[in-house]
Every structure is written in structure tokens, then in C-alpha cells.
Specification:
The complex is a heterodimer of chains A (about 260) and B (about 270).
Chain A: H1 6-30, H2 38-77, H3 84-122, H4 125-131, H5 136-175, H6 180-189, H7 193-219, H8 224-255
Chain B: H1 2-36, H2 43-84, H3 90-128, H4 131-137, H5 142-179, H6 184-194, H7 197-223, H8 228-261
Helix pairs in contact in B: 1-5, 2-3, 2-5, 3-5, 3-6, 3-7, 3-8, 5-7, 7-8
């Protein structure tokens, strides 16, 4: 039985380890040493697109519906149903989409990486890589980070479009308090290119952390088949807390002092 | 040729999906039946699992709800409300945001991601080590002795953690008010005039059902883990994806129904 303080203590412990491992991997990608295995990086990007994109978009779609629903009822309560676009514009782009992206990424991609690399560690394949003269951190972790950096910006941008569509469906088609033109007028009025870039930065920061955490827990897995399962569960604990902290920091930094809204003078 | 291969693979994936959903339904029915039919040998395990899940979840829960409520409905809404000079309205908004949405969402994500993955890893390890078969040989029913206590414990704890999440979500709102140098009286006044019993029981009921979904999906995936070292990890991965998507789909349906059937939630006081 675990103690009451084991989880916070374990989180702090692994925070340092993950930061060290992560900065090493990010350095390998940034300095271009991973480009030796560019083909493998492209393969990992392909795996992400074929294996995870549909799940991510489906999940993001549900959150978009939810944002639209809430916005429609909130603005109806305020007596301004025509302004439902205000709520869904901010909710979709600034908050719901980065969080939804972080949740589904830690569930699908993060744990998937732990299970994959952990199984390689348990069956001694990582040692075999080293014997063959291939640097395992570069080949396994670096290429995955490179693949994520290639694929996720595009998956995220398509996800933005999908949440917009979902909010439109739930506000205009399901609740139906506002006409299509009226909704879209307010909706686009509360958008600006800066917000899009900030939202993308938030989402990509989460994606980077999740991939690195997955690589770390997979790379350090030990204790047979059971150990892989435990490491997978642990990576999820780390990722959930990290996603929320990053989301809050992003909001504070990007929108904390400036609402970036076309209201007032 | 390649196209037909992709097609048959797609059809196979859909077939698998239906098989999995069917198996999970069967497991749900078996769990509910063996939970109510005597004897009840699972009392001790139930208490163990409850305290295990609570010890695992309290810290991620606290940080997550606080951070999410400070950022999303806190700062974003406070920015907009400051433009209108109506910061005291934040309390009314927090009923909608924190009680009705964010508390259940975070509870579901944390329970699925932390307690659920631990359950899958645990049951998957027992399956790989063939302990489940050994239990059956000994005449111990794994559903009654392992799945039922987890099912009941997770239902109970998800409902209760929801209240915990509401409290820490409101703490995020209070910190936002303080950051914007506002008196707290307006926040609490609009909070309590807008909060209704329906909101709270709706939130708790929704979370209880989330707990049931999470427990069944994660137990099923753990008990059907196979394939050596990669198997348990893969089971955890699939379980957490399936439970999150199904929980969020249920969230949307439940919120739609709750809001449409309780018009008193739609008026602002």
C-alpha cells in the first residue's frame, strides 16, 4: 500500500530526472545529431499521423461540442444568445483545445511510447542497439521527438478547425438560438492571429513534454512485464499534472494581463 | 490489391471494436449481478481499493483542478468581465464552469489516468503471471473478488472526488478575484445565488457513472492483457484511450440532457 505523500514525492523526484533526460533529448534533436536518423524520424511522424490523428480529432470534436453547448446556454441566460460565438471562440481556441490535446496525447501517445520503449528495454533490445553501435537515446527518443515536432503542429491546426466545426454544430444546429450568419460574425470577430499562435505554442509545449516523459519512463522501465505496466501508469500521473500546470502557465503568460478582445477602447 | 487490404483491415478493426464493446457490456452485467447477489466476500478489498485510489488521486486532483480553474474560467473570464466592469459576476460563472463542467472533467481524467491505469497494470500483471487462472482453479471468481470491489470503489471515489474538485476549483476562482484586487463578497453572493442543488447532484451523479465506465473499461483491458512484456503496457494504453473517449462522449450526452430537462439551470440570478 502506498503512503499519502508517495505520489507528490515521486512526482518531484521524477520531475528532475525527466527534465535532465528531456533536455538531453531536446539537445540531440536541436543540435541536428538526430538528423542522422531522419528516416526513422519520418517513420515515427507517419506512425503518429496514421495511428493517433483520428483519435485526437474525435476527442477534440467532443470537447468542441461541449464548448458550444455551454456557450449557448450561458449566453442565453445572459439574455444575449446571439453572442454565443464569444464564448465558443475563446473556449475552443484558448482553453479547451490545448487541454483536450494534452489529455488525449498523454493517453494515446505518451503511454503508447512507454509501452513500446519499455518492452524494448525489458527484452534487452536497447542494449543490443548499443552493441550494434547505434546511440539508443538518439535513435529511440530523439527520433520520436523529431517525429512529434514534424507531425503535431499540423494535427493541432486541423484539430482547431474540427473544434470550430463542432461548436458551430452544437450552437447553430443543436440549440438553434442564433442564425448561422449571426454566430459566425461574432465568432470571427473574437479571433485574431496572435491567439492562434499562442494556442499552438501551448499545445506544442504539452506535446513536447508528453513525448519526453513517455521516452523517459519507457527508457528507464525495469522489473519484467509488470514493470512496463507500472511505468505506463506512472507516466500518466506525471503527464496529467504537467498538462494542467503548462495550461495554466500558458494562460497566465499569454492572456494574463491582456484579454485581446475587441471590446472597449 | 492494396486498397482491398486496407478495406479488410478497416472492416476487421470495426469488427474488433464491436467485439470489445460487447465484451465490456457482458463484463458490466456480470459485475452488477455478482455485486448484488450474495455472498459478499469483497468488503475488505473494497476498503483497500478505495483507500488506494484516494492515496493515488488526491495530489494530481488538487493540482489539476486548481490550475485548470485558475487559468480557464478564472483568468479568461475575469479578463472579459473586467472589460464590462462586472467582476462580481465571476461567482455565477463559476457555478457553470467549475461545478457543472471542470470538476467532472478533471475528476474523470485523473481517475482514468491515475487510478484506472493502476488497476489495468495490476490486473494485467496478474493475468500475465496466470494468477487469474490460478484463482479460477481454486474456485474463486475473479469478477466477484477483483472486479466488483474495484467497480464499487471507483464509483464511490469518483463521486466523492468530484466534491473535492469543486472545492479546489472554487479556490482557483477565489485566487483570481484576489489577483484582480476584488472584494470576495460579490463572488460569493453571485456564486450562492446561482448555485442550485440540481447542479451539484447532476455533477456528482455524472461522476459516479464516469467511475463505473472507467472501472469496467480498465478492468476488462487488464483481464484480457496478453502478449508478454509489451502486453501490459499496450493494455494500459488502450484502456486509457477507450475510457477517456467514452467518458467524454457520455459527458456531452449527459450535459445536453441535464440542461434541456432542467430549464431552471438556464436562468441567471
Amino acid at each position: 500500500m502506498i503512503g499519502w505523500l508517495d505520489i507528490p514525492r515521486g512526482w518531484l523526484d521524477s520531475f528532475g530526472e525527466v527534465a535532465r533526460f528531456g533536455s538531453r533529448v531536446a539537445g540531440l534533436v536541436y543540435s541536428g545529431r538526430t538528423f542522422r536518423f531522419f528516416g526513422e524520424g519520418l517513420r515515427q511522424a507517419g506512425i503518429l499521423i496514421l495511428g493517433s490523428a483520428l483519435v485526437i480529432w474525435a476527442f477534440v470534436f467532443i470537447l468542441g461540442l461541449q464548448c458550444g453547448l455551454l456557450g449557448a446556454y450561458l449566453l442565453r441566460a445572459q439574455g444575449a444568445p446571439a453572442y454565443a460565438g464569444l464564448f465558443s471562440a475563446w473556449c475552443d481556441l484558448r482553453e479547451a483545445l490545448p487541454y483536450a490535446f494534452g489529455y488525449i496525447l498523454s493517453a494515446k501517445v505518451g503511454t503508447g511510447i512507454v509501452a513500446e520503449i519499455g518492452a524494448m528495454r525489458i527484452s534487452d533490445e536497447i542494449d543490443a542497439l548499443e552493441v550494434m553501435g547505434i546511440p539508443p537515446v538518439t535513435f529511440l527518443a530523439g527520433t520520436r521527438l523529431l517525429g512529434a515536432w514534424i507531425a503535431f503542429p499540423f494535427i493541432y491546426l486541423v484539430g482547431i478547425g474540427i473544434t470550430y466545426m463542432a461548436s458551430y454544430i452544437s450552437v447553430v444546429k443543436q440549440i438553434g438560438d442564433v442564425s448561422s450568419g449571426g454566430y459566425l460574425l461574432i465568432f470571427w470577430m473574437f479571433q485574431n492571429p496572435g491567439d492562434l499562435v499562442f494556442s499552438l505554442i501551448k499545445g506544442m509545449a504539452m506535446a513536447t513534454v508528453i513525448v519526453l516523459v513517455g521516452c523517459y519512463y519507457g527508457y528507464t522501465a525495469s522489473g519484467g512485464p509488470v514493470g512496463v505496466g507500472t511505468a505506463t501508469a506512472k507516466s500518466m500521473v506525471f503527464n496529467i499534472v504537467a498538462v494542467h500546470i503548462l495550461g495554466m502557465l500558458g494562460t497566465v503568460v499569454f492572456w494574463g494581463a491582456n484579454p485581446r478582445a475587441p471590446i472597449g477602447g | 490489391m492494396a486498397q482491398s487490404g486496407a478495406l479488410s483491415r478497416g472492416a476487421g478493426a470495426f469488427g474488433n471494436l464491436f467485439t470489445e464493446v460487447g465484451n465490456m457490456m457482458i463484463l458490466t452485467a456480470r459485475t452488477v449481478i455478482s455485486a448484488v447477489r450474495p455472498p459478499y466476500p469483497y468488503g475488505e478489498e473494497l476498503v483497500d481499493q478505495f483507500s488506494f485510489a484516494l492515496r493515488l488521486c488526491w495530489f494530481p486532483m488538487l493540482v489539476s483542478t486548481f490550475a485548470l480553474c485558475l487559468g480557464a474560467p478564472g483568468l479568461q473570464a475575469a479578463n472579459a468581465l473586467t472589460l464590462f466592469g462586472a467582476m462580481d459576476r465571476l461567482g455565477g460563472f463559476f457555478v457553470l464552469a467549475a461545478v457543472r463542467q471542470i470538476a467532472p472533467i478533471v475528476t474523470a481524467v485523473v481517475v482514468a489516468g491515475v487510478a484506472g491505469t493502476a488497476i489495468t497494470a495490476d490486473l494485467g500483471a496478474r493475468k500475465i503471471r496466470e494468477e487469474l487462472d490460478a484463482l479460477q482453479v481454486l474456485g474463486v471468481d475473479p469478477v466477484k473478488n477483483l472486479v466488483v470491489p474495484r467497480f464499487l470503489a471507483l464509483m464511490l471515489i469518483t463521486g466523492l472526488l468530484d466534491l473535492f474538485a469543486i472545492v479546489f476549483g472554487l479556490a482557483g476562482g477565489i485566487i483570481t478575484e484576489l489577483l484582480f484586487h476584488q472584494p470576495l463578497g460579490g463572488f460569493f453572493a453571485t456564486l450562492f445565488s446561482n448555485a442550485s442543488t440540481t447542479d451539484v447532484w447532476g455533477s456528482v451523479l455524472m461522476c459516479t457513472i464516469f467511475g463505473a465506465i472507467i472501472a469496467v473499461v480498465h478492468s476488462y483491458k487488464g483481464m484480457s492483457a496478453s502478449g508478454g512484456a509489451a502486453g501490459v503496457g499496450r493494455a494500459v494504453n488502450q484502456a486509457v484511450v477507450i475510457s477517456m473517449v467514452s467518458v467524454f462522449a457520455f459527458l456531452f450526452v449527459f450535459t445536453s440532457v441535464l440542461l434541456a430537462t432542467h430549464p431552471e439551470l438556464q436562468s441567471l440570478r
